[in-house]
Specification:
Alpha-Beta Plaits; 2 domains; ten-stranded mixed sheet; 5 helices
């Protein structure tokens, strides 16, 4: 009998065209997972992800689920997936979920981290996972982040001009920390629009460069115009850290 399996997945997104499978390439995270699971079960499998990370974006804690029938234990499923998936995709955990669990619809929140390198030398060994840029004014960025936290219409931070659904989102955490030559922007919210985290980061960096004031964030939110916000920070600096769910009723 088919069961609903919940998977916790980490991946290096450098080689891939994002999470969602595409008709003209097999180089997507979803496509790789579906191919291996379909081989394992000898039947077509649909994998549902908690979100759609863009091309080049990484994840340490993507959640996905799939319904399929197998006699294998969750440990054996996890081992099989990791044996046949590429080395830049790892299934960290497999659990049996409740029948109605849906990794996207049941998600309560997500945590993303964007990492910048602000040192004087090239980040040779981390270049695929950071955005190398000049050193900004952190205090100005923290002040600007204070205006962006909360429940707002983030239309100015959405790259999809044809967005028909609401662009109102709740962002309850924007934490900016520095560790040596590395600058981390950690975001937590109920959900994020297309390219929203990268546009938020680009806008905060422009504030840190002195190109806009922290107080201008209020006007930017009110304008609801993508053209007025900052640049879209490059994909390689972004990583999905965690997806939140209710602790009860998700897994058996």
């Amino acid at each position: 009998m088919a069961q609903n399996y919940k998977m916790l997945i980490a991946y290096d997104g450098t080689r891939y065209y994002g999470w969602e499978h595409q008709p003209n390439t097999d180089m997507t995270i979803q496509g790789k997972l579906e191919a291996v699971l379909s081989r394992m079960t000898d039947s077509p499998i649909k994998v549902i992800g908690a979100g759609r990370t863009d091309a080049g974006v990484h994840a340490k804690g993507m959640t996905a689920n799939a319904h399929f029938d197998t006699s294998m234990t969750v440990e054996e499923i996890c081992a099989y997936l990791n044996r046949y998936l590429p080395d830049d995709i790892c299934v960290r955990e497999v659990k049996i979920a409740s029948e109605r669990f849906h990794s996207r619809y049941n998600a309560l929140g997500k945590t993303y981290c964007y990492t910048c390198y602000v040192g004087g030398l090239k980040p040779v060994f981390n270049r695929k996972y950071v955005y190398a840029t000049e050193r900004p004014d952190i205090e100005k960025m923290k002040t600007a982040a204070g205006y962006l936290k909360g429940t707002h219409d983030f239309a100015s931070f959405c790259s999809n001009p044809k967005m028909k659904k609401s662009t109102v989102r709740q962002v309850d955490q924007i934490q900016i920390t520095q560790n040596g030559d590395y600058l981390n922007f950690t975001y937590h919210g109920t959900g994020f629009l297309q390219h929203m985290v990268r546009i938020l980061t680009g806008t905060l960096l422009e504030t840190g460069y002195g190109l806009r004031t922290p107080e201008s964030m209020e006007e930017l939110l009110a304008a609801k115009s993508r053209a007025l916000a900052g640049f879209t920070a490059p994909a390689q600096g972004l990583c999905l850290i965690r997806v939140d769910y209710q602790s009860k009723g998700v897994c058996k």
